[in-house]
Amino acid sequence: MSPAVLFIGGMDSSGGAGLMRDCATAQALGATARSAVTAVTAQSDRAVSALHPVPEDIVAAQIAAAADTGADPVAAIKVGMLGSAGITRAVARTLARHLPDVPLVLDPVLCASSGRALIDAEGIAAMLPLLVPRATLLTPNLPELRALCAPLGLPGETGEAEICAALLDLGCGAVLVKGGHAPQGPTSEDRLYQRGYDLHRLSSARYPVALRGTGCQLASAVAVHLAGGRALPAAVAKAKEMLDQRFRAAATRGDGDPCAPQVA
Ligand code: PLP
């Protein structure tokens, strides 16, 4: 039996990120992928040229059908690009009805590496009360964490630990802050904040290559490992191993995605 994971997010026509990256990650780890598309994007590695949100009732119908499919129950959920407040509300409502207790990894996707916003301010404001409390793990990168300050009612210069405490106060199980956007150095550090536990630091080598869809891949891999029954810190560590292998392989070959930033 392979665990089933439901991926909720956007289609990226370049194949670099979004649901295609999620499904490839699940397949590589031996999990079954189910999907609900929130938005169709036309994008290359250089630009997002079009963005078409899927109607809210169709997003809800996909989630309901995915929850009601196949022999294996959905054992984890990963939520990526939501696109709008309406879709965020539809996702929260439908998950509460069909998959209320399933572990959920929420990647608060705000924009593509090429720059275009993938959700508006109203959508971010809806995500905080509706999906953050439902999340087992939230996986912001540093700019995403900073962008959550205003909707959380915190000053822009609030420290990382305080922002994470506010997110944990909303009810999410843990916050993994991805440090790839920090100033360059030989290593990159992610930090896992969990209420009642010491801060857990995960350091990895930084490679001189640019890759797309790394945030999607990390969150998806964590969801797959949670579906397989691993505890959260072990699921995060295994997911980071997978990313490290992808970076190392790309650095060895000397390739990468030309327009993605030099970060994880
Ligand atoms: N496009 C879609 C549909 C995504 O879901 C994401 C991230 O989750 C991105 C783009 C951003 O990926 P990248 O940072 O590689 O551009």
UniProtKB/TrEMBL annotation:
EC number: 2.7.1.49
The protein's name in its UniProt record: hydroxymethylpyrimidine kinase
Stretch forming the signal peptide: none
Involved pathway(s): Cofactor biosynthesis; thiamine diphosphate biosynthesis
Domain of life: Bacteria
A single GO molecular function term of this UniProt record: phosphomethylpyrimidine kinase activity
Residue ranges constituting the Pyridoxamine kinase/Phosphomethylpyrimidine kinase domain according to the UniProt record: 12-256
Annotated Pfam families: Phos_pyr_kin (PF08543)
BP term (GO), one: thiamine biosynthetic process
Tagged with keyword Cell cycle: no
Gene: thiD
InterPro entries: HMP/HMP-P_kinase_dom, PM/HMP-P_kinase-1, Ribokinase-like
Organism: Pseudooceanicola algae
Keyword Transferase: yes
Assigned keywords, A-Z: Kinase, Transferase
CC per GO annotation: cytosol
